[in-house]
Amino acid sequence: MPDVNAEVVEILDNTYAWSDLITAAIIAFVAIIAAIVLRRLIVRYSRRKDTAHTATWYTLSRLVTYTVLTVGFFLVISELGVPLSEFTLLAGALGVGLGFGLQSLVANFVAGIVLLLDKSLKVGDFVELESGATGQVRDIRMRATTIVTNDNIDVIVPNSEFVTGRVVNWTHREVRRRVRIPFGVAYGTDKELVKRAALEAAEAVPFTLDLEGPLRPQVWLSEFGDSALGFELVVWLNPEATMKPVAVTAAYNWALHTALQRHSIEIPFPQRDVHVRTLFGLSGEDARDALRLEKHDLDEGASPAAPATGDNDAISDVSGEAGYAPERADHARPREDG
């Protein structure tokens, strides 16, 4: 049976006894368990408190985990009695290796610490990445941040991209935001009638923040297009709709189409008028007869649109009544694992 005090291994010209190795292993094990337990305790405590401070509790749990593991590492080094001079050499060699092979990993780890401390990005925020993808921040880990899209797709983004790249945080300061829904009507349409129809559409969608006051819906004449007068319905959204941009736009488009149809407002499409002066030396009725067109074929307008039927499915999507609708509380809360 080996003597636990016998010197068993030599590392960097230093020998270590079994007792030192076993003690160091116990310290490392205790540090890991303590980090996990403390993080779970903080997470459970945060769930019993006001969810407005969820991001702060999440940051605290991560920092406590990293601190305990760091302290445990140095206690292991101290127990093994590694001289600081040799540890410096080891750290220098490790630094060279990091510079060549692990540079991106270290950069992502440092960026994750920066994100946790400066609070420019928090768990529960709704962000738009430089690639155009949008989603809610679910988790900020050592290497990468998990973004969950409204289609329940997990996007794993390296932390360094949030520090060095451009990220739009839709909920950084507050959750209210304004959207502009473009639409067009035929030339000659009464502007006041268009405005009334658009405001009726805004009132019909439950995500409009306020119908009166400074945040009321507005209708802007924004463009004189080639085939249409361009308008925009400008609406402030309530917090429920801020994180569903695509579905919200679809809901207002649906309501606009219904309102414009109700007021018999024509929604034009790109078109060109062709005036035939002569055809094979023929003109007027003779040219029309050559093309085999009746007069009513030229004067006939577009057939009236069928009345709108059915429910506005986009409203159900934003409200969580249709399709995938994860609870925001689950996304906003830090998870206990990992």
List the helices and strands and how they pair.
Blueprint: E1 7-11, E2 14-17, H1 18-47, H2 54-80, H3 84-100, H4 103-118, E3 126-128, E4 134-140, E5 144-148, E6 154-158, H5 159-164, E7 168-169, E8 177-185, H6 191-204, E9 218-224, E10 229-237, H7 239-242, H8 245-262, H9 285-290, H10 295-299, H11 313-319, H12 328-332
Domain Mechanosensitive ion channel MscS: 105-172
Transmembrane segments: 21-42, 63-84, 90-117
Subcellular location: Cell membrane
CATH class of the largest domain: Alpha Beta
Q: Which word captures the global form?
A: elongated
Q: Tell me what portion of residues adopts beta-strand conformation.
A: 15-25%
CATH topology of the largest domain: Alpha-Beta Plaits
Strands of the widest sheet, in order across it, are 6-5-4-3-7
Distance between the termini: 39 Å
Low-pLDDT runs of 5+ residues are 296-309, 324-338
Tally the helices: what do you get?
12
| Main sheet characteristics | 5 strands, antiparallel
Instruction: Write down the Rg.
Output: 33 Å
What is the string of helix and strand elements? EEHHHHEEEEHEEHEEHHHHHH
> What is the residue-mean pLDDT, rounded to a whole number?
76
